[in-house]
Amino acid sequence: MQFQVQIKLLFNNVIKTTDTLKKKGYSIFATQDWHPLNHVSFYTNHKEKKAFETIKINQKTQVLWPPHCVQGTENAKVLVDNNLFSASCIVRKGQNPNSYSGFKDDGGQTTDLAQILEKNGIKKVIIYGIATDYCVKATAIDALSAGFKVIVIESLCKGVSSDTTAKALLEMKEKGITILKNLDLEKI
Ligand SMILES: [Zn+2]
Questions:
Q1: d(CA 137, ligand 1 centre) in Å
Q2: pTM of the model
Q3: 24 Cα to the center of ligand 1, angstroms
Q4: Quick check: is 73 in a domain?
């Protein structure tokens, strides 16, 4: 299947599932990449670098991405109908330095996510979105470290490449995260 078609299907599925979860009484929270145009993770901000090449930042490998989710642009819009969220439930990340996790950036600075979840009495989180091998993985692992029970829905996520995705799913499983192929509320 063509990549664009796969993404469209995934997005539709994410929107539909989020709607169903909301109707069943689940609280909905989102993270939103909110990058400045000159963000360090964009290959366009590094001379003679191409997309998906890597550089070192503070001894850490940083993948250089095509520019995406630039602050204030249509491209940074949260997919799901914003009416599904309670107030202040969209946590912005990746402003500078880089951040894959919804809980903290690469410099260790935390976002409000853990606090927001705790304030709402959340004990268990169901995570899905893009990309399985980067933001989903980092967010799921940090959620587990913060003491939440974590479930990742594989069919509602998409990875950047199949080998890093398989590795990420295995790593999450080994850490104690539940990976479900499809969302099955009976199993949660
Ligand atoms: Zn990003």
A1: 14
A2: 0.93
A3: 30
A4: no
